[in-house]
Amino acid sequence: FRVRSVPLSTDMSDEEFAKNYLKELYAMQEDNTPSFGRKVSEMSLKLSEMQEFFGLKVTGTLDAETLEMMKQPRCGVPDVAA
Amino acid sequence: YRADSSSNKWPTNKLTYRIENYTPDMSVAEVDDSIQRALQVWARVTPLKFTRIYSGIADIMISFAVGDHGDGSPFDGPNGFLAHAFGPADGLGGDTHFDDDETFTFKSSNGYNLFLVAAHEFGHALGLDHSTDPGALMNARYTYRDVDSFVLPRDDVRKIQALYGSNPEIPDKPEPTPPPTPNACDPRLVLDAVTGLRGETYFFKNKFFWRSHPQMPQTEQFLIKSFWPELPGDIDAALEDPSADLVYIFKGQKVWALNGYDVVNRKSLSSFRLPATVKKINAAVYDESTGKMLFFVGKSYYSFDTNNKKMDKGYPKQVEERFPGMTGKVTAAFQNNGFTYLFSGPRVFEFNESTLMRVLGNKHFLQC
Q: Which of B20, B121, B230, B320 is labelled catalytic?
């Protein structure tokens, strides 16, 4: 049954899956490593945006609940205008 | 040019559509019917009119495709993305594509119901974005809903009418009222049922439930059918039997036994030895200290012994006998950390055994 939002020991496939999801639906740019001194990676920002959009706990991390939500069948139209 | 919603709208209320090809999952007639009914969902509440054409370029070109189909938004195989549509514009605008790696269905809740997916996508084709309202048709996630009784939710009606206005033709019979998504902040909110479930607490109202975890301040709201497609809305009661890792959902004479996501058994009220005169219960709670299930009917309650599967003698009794101060009808009930919470309308009575400790509101449990 769905576990709670706990940080995932994500294997690459989950991480890759999440990155693709965020690129497709949240207009995450390719390079999301922290740059120019930015403390928070773009992936963390986009994760927070997605968690907020779906009413999940906003952690900015790829926790089990967020990954579960990403894997739910859905519409392919982005959640944020590109 | 990517599948994308846009806040545009069509400059005209008269739109054409064309079905370019078909999925092998359904008959041609079933696809035609699903598409036509999905467009009617929006036509019914706006001045929009849809006319089908069979050749040439329509405003809304409808097709089934797999993988990369040349529009810059490739599909991803089974599950995941089910379909997409383009917002109002010339050319690709309005076009709607369905991922034919999915299994589309006409009526059943297996596979993905084409009518529901199409109605959602046509919302985009008309200019709507995704909604954060978990009950909205335009919520991004696919959730099965009963197709025959489908009524466009209020959030969607409000948004499409903001673009195109309402339907000027007064229908000969009044439209069913668009169902609002229950609001945790509504001071008059009367919950249908409450139960624990593996350490969390679920609060049911209409077709929805809120899910609350003891270590997390916020609650999330979901459609019941997004977890359990078989369950109805507007349930009467719910209780968890932690020793059996089961949750029982009650509606009328019917009882569903859940183990996590799975409906593992279907019973009737009589299997809990309630008298035949009891046609429905209003609330139910499992008392961990005694292993008894308490069933509330109006201002009375029954006690069912789960160990020997018998109704305890001398019941029904008045609720107030066991819970002094609980004078109203119990509408929901659950136990948590040794306390028993009895909901009566929007108020919640907290008991420690038979001692009334506090009178609370829903907001004590539901983040507002």
A: B121
